[in-house]
Amino acid sequence: MLIKGRVWKFGDDISTDHIAPGRYFHLRSNLSELAKHVLEDADLTFASKVKSGDIIVAGRNFGLGSSREHAPRIIKLAGVSCIIAESFARIFYRNSFNIGLPLLEADTDKIEEGDELEIDLERGKIKNISKGFSLDSEPISPFMIRLIHDGGIEEHVKKYGDFKID
Amino acid sequence: MGKTISETIISEHTDREVSAGEFVVSRVDVAMVQDGTGPLSVQELQKLGMERVFDKKNTILFLDHASPSPRKELSNAHQMLRKFSKKTGAYLSEVGEGVCHQRLVEEWVNPGNIVVGADSHTCTAGALGAFSTGMGSTDVALAFALGKVWLKVPETFKFIIKGKLSPGVFSKDVILFIIGMIGADGATYKAMEFEGETIDNLSMDSRFTITNMAIEAGGKTGLIHTDGTTKEYLEERGRSNKYQEIKADSDANYEKVFEIDVSKIEPIISFPHTVDNVRKISDVEDIKIDQVYIGTCTNGRIEDLRIAASILKGRRRHPDTRLIVIPASIDIYKDALKEGLLETFLEAGAALESPGCGPCVGVHKGVLADGERVLSTQNRNFKGRMGNPEGLIYLGSPATAAATAILGKITDPRKYL
């Protein structure tokens, strides 16, 4: 799977409260409304700037905190095609693949906001078209790749009638 | 090769010998959602045409995060969960009954169980020797319908905790100390097993505080092997027949082993906006506090209320500092009532609220004003957590919280021993 897009850059420890703030708890049953506030506490204007296909690039421990699946869902709903970070919090990682949003772990230090990236998900290759260098990401497990190809865990369960690990 | 606690429990639920790193499909004993995550679970099950539950007694919907509901959208979310309960037979824990993690250990979770909850602090129940972990709404929705879940068997970090805690130092200080040491991502994806003489000497209430915060170091779950204390707790809760010995094999494989002496640690405060931003209380300058909150799944248990009340007895909150007290469950509320603790809190000037998550999740019952500081016994201090990104959240033990309420600034509880 080839993904191409423009970078929005964030720092370390972006929590689910930055992504889907608690004060919008009442919008949790209304994801399109909640998505208007995506990442608001990290970048107030992100929701109005982000375009379909864009890529989020961040530092360590992206998505720490709450189990709220609303966090990756509204990032995906806002049009983001992929997130690359140095590391991800566990529940956010799982939730993202479950809803069909791919994540890659890589050294993101030299990627800057506005860079154009091209990502080969299966091979774990990240090409920075703007700056002319390539990066390798940590390999993604075959099951997680399958979830992305199936379009998330629900489609996966519909397709196989169960979880298909092997 | 021997097995860790996680490998032991997951093997039993998959009918084969598993080890860290494997992907497996496992049976689940208990599955739960709460009012923030449950509506999405119900919507997903409706979409899939799978509105059913694998076990009525052990699939639970908790109304605790916005409870009683402060606004119509959340009232409608509660209605959605009530309807799902009526339709499928899933158990509904109503408004006022308490916080999911406390209710789970009181009524549902037993040693050796696998528990999945759509709430990150589901790791709390690991103190009972259960593999208990937080997931998203869709994962738990599928667990509701299918009674199983996909899992990656985690590698384990072992924490051997030694030393007698000084007076005024509690399990909350121990876990904040550990998170400060390894960092907020220090145990990402790992199971954290806690053992050693310090843990052996802790009550179940204190142990729950430790495992509750495993997620704050990135952990998949926190685990404590069972012993006489676990057995007594289950007896008190009327489940003595559910006791079984759960412990790791002596030759189990650990990715890392930490040995930590806690005999010399002081009360610890976690500063905004990350849990690992910890300070010893003696290093903290006078910091004025506008609100103190004693409660939550971390520290709203009877032992916590007893400690706080022992400090507040015969004293009053500082006139410029609000004090909010919320017992974590209805059983704790009733015990605190019988023991006279609630009267102590009221006489100290506390606002006493019905069991639930309270202001911890930023929905109601004490949202901060711009620039205000709160000292809370909760587990998390992220920017915006308590409903206002301009608020500042400091974390500490119930003793520290009580002492702070009296003087209106962050205060060493040892002053009141």
In short:
The complex is a heterodimer of chains A (166) and B (417). Chain A is α/β, with parallel strands linked by helices and 166 residues long.
What does this structure look like?
The complex is a heterodimer of chains A (166) and B (417). Chain A is an alpha/beta fold and 166 residues long. Chain A is 28% helix and 19% strand. Chain A is built from seven helices and seven strands. Chain A has a seven-stranded mixed sheet with strand order 4-3-2-1-5-6-7. In chain A, a hairpin with a 4-residue loop joins strand 5 and strand 6. In chain A, helix 6 packs across helix 7 (153-160). The longest helix of chain A has 9 residues, at 90-98. Chain B has 417 residues and is α/β, with parallel strands linked by helices. Chain B folds into two domains: 5-260, Aconitase, domain 3; 269-416, Aconitase, domain 3 (2-Layer Sandwich). Chain B is 31% helix and 18% strand. The interface between A and B is large, with 43 and 58 residues.
| Mean pLDDT across residues of chain A | 96
Beta fraction of chain B: 15-25%
Radius of gyration of chain A: 15 Å
CATH topology of chain A: Aconitase, domain 4
Cα end-to-end separation of chain B? 48 Å
Q: Let me know the average pLDDT of chain B.
A: 97
Query: How many β-strand stretches of chain B?
Result: 18
Main sheet overview of chain A: 7 strands, mixed
Largest sheet of chain B: 5 strands, parallel
